[in-house]
């Protein structure tokens, strides 16, 4: 039985009624890392790895959740929404946001499970939050638009789960469009879709299968360091609101000698924004090899200037760089583990997979998982 049918069966078994089904995807990001919370640009897409949710409304105020993959349950009430510091917080936090926005809800049942590998940096948490919000909207006929829903997902994660993430992951999961990447301006939230149907090119994710414990604390530290940079420049350039408004000339003049660490962090962000803008032009021109070179540049910056990579991710990129048929590779997402994203020519795919698997084991003693992914639509109902 496939996963969706297992989830449906588990739902029927627990709640004896037919569910509404929602599919909410994970995401990749081609380039533009750690730029979202600096009001810069990102280039993500929703992928064919997703969380499936089966839901139905209840007559009372109770919340009955089953995490199919974890074999865990949660029971609570709409009137006592407090963090549990477990997986349930992604659902509870989203429910809390809908309540804060003044929507009338009743209790509901939910069984969910998915194909997004956990801890791989493919945004399973954003997918879950979006999936729950989308399900609430459908179940209770609330008429909330996608942009408002994904903003609620971000606030759920920021305020209830306690992770101060930017908007990219929720945006990509909710707004994804098959065979397109999203060029998102994280300041205005204006976005355009760019076709990504490169004949004979695959998006391949190599999972380092490590998640170093530094991830949350270092993420918050990087955010703070960017803010220190902005504040240090403000006396000279009062119009600056975020690193989006900063140039290398400003950084070179005022930060390079006085605050070398802050300079490196800010310089990475300023350059990554530029790489993204250059990359979009290359994609439009069909210059995928040129785009791939920018991906390597992004990885260098993330590893040496922003310092959010780790030996395992550096090793994966290093192995990929030496392979014929690999156009670009870099770490993806917050860092300190998770996946690298690679653009690999179709005819060298098997060779690439074999080589990465063998070399990664040899050099780190660890196994990798390799996922070839397709770009899909964002959060949606599943027709039954
Ligand atoms: C994580 C965050 F959730 C995103 O908002 C983004 O900052 C990303 O790290 C880095 O680009 O996925």
From TrEMBL:
GO molecular function, one term: galactokinase activity
Residues annotated for Mg(2+) binding in this entry: 125, 157
Pathway involvement of the protein, from the record: Carbohydrate metabolism; galactose metabolism
Residues in Galactokinase N-terminal domain copies: 10-57
Residue ranges constituting the GHMP kinase C-terminal domain according to the UniProt record: 283-361
Residues that hold substrate according to the record: 33-36, 219
Pfam families tied to this protein: GalKase_gal_bdg (PF10509), GHMP_kinases_C (PF08544), GHMP_kinases_N (PF00288)
EC number per UniProt: 2.7.1.6
UniProt keyword terms in alphabetical order: ATP-binding, Carbohydrate metabolism, Cytoplasm, Galactose metabolism, Kinase, Magnesium, Metal-binding, Nucleotide-binding, Transferase
Main location: cytoplasm
Site (Transition state stabilizer): 27
Reaction(s) the record says it catalyses: alpha-D-galactose + ATP = alpha-D-galactose 1-phosphate + ADP + H(+)
Transmembrane intervals: none
GHMP kinase N-terminal domain ranges (all copies): 92-177
Active site residues according to the UniProt entry: 169 (proton acceptor)
Role description: Catalyzes the transfer of the gamma-phosphate of ATP to D-galactose to form alpha-D-galactose-1-phosphate (Gal-1-P).
PANTHER family: GALACTOKINASE-RELATED (PTHR10457:SF7), MEVALONATE KINASE/GALACTOKINASE (PTHR10457)
Family of this protein: Belongs to the GHMP kinase family. GalK subfamily.
Protein name: Galactokinase
């Amino acid at each position: 039985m496939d996963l969706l049918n297992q989830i449906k069966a588990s739902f029927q078994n627990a709640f004896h009624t037919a569910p509404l089904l929602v599919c909410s995807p994970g995401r990749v990001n081609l380039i533009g890392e750690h730029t979202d919370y600096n009001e810069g640009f990102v280039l993500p897409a929703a992928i064919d790895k997703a969380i499936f949710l089966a839901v139905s409304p209840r007559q009372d105020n109770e919340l009955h959740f089953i995490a199919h993959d974890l074999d865990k349950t949660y029971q609570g009430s709409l009137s006592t929404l407090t963090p549990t510091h477990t997986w349930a917080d992604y659902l509870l936090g989203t429910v809390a946001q809908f309540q804060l926005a003044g929507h009338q809800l009743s209790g509901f049942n939910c069984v969910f499970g998915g194909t997004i590998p956990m801890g791989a940096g493919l945004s399973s948490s954003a997918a879950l939050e979006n999936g729950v919000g989308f399900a609430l909207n459908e179940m209770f006929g609330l008429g909330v638009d996608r942009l408002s829903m994904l903003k609620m997902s971000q606030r759920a994660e920021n305020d209830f789960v306690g992770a101060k993430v930017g908007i990219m992951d929720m945006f990509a999961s909710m707004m994804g469009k098959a065979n397109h990447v999203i060029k998102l301006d994280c300041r205005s939230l204006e976005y355009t879709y760019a076709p990504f149907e490169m004949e004979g090119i695959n998006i391949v994710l190599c999972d380092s299968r490590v998640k170093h414990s530094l991830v949350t604390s270092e993420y918050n530290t990087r955010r703070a360091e960017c803010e220190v940079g902005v504040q240090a420049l403000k006396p000279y350039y009062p119009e600056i609101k975020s690193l989006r408004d900063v140039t290398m000339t400003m950084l070179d003049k005022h930060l390079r000698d006085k605050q070398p660490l802050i300079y490196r962090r800010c310089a990475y962000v300023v350059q990554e924004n530029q790489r993204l803008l250059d990359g979009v032009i290359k994609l439009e021109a069909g210059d995928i090899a040129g785009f791939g070179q920018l991906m390597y540049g992004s990885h260098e910056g993330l590893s040496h200037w922003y310092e959010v990579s780790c030996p395992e991710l550096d090793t994966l990129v290093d192995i990929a760089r030496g392979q014929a048929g690999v156009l670009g590779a870099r770490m993806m997402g917050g860092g300190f583990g998770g996946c690298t994203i690679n653009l690999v020519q179709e005819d060298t795919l098997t060779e690439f997979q074999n080589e990465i698997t063998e070399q990664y084991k040899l050099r780190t003693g660890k196994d990798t998982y390799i996922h070839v992914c397709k770009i899909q639509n964002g959060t949606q109902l599943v027709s039954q």
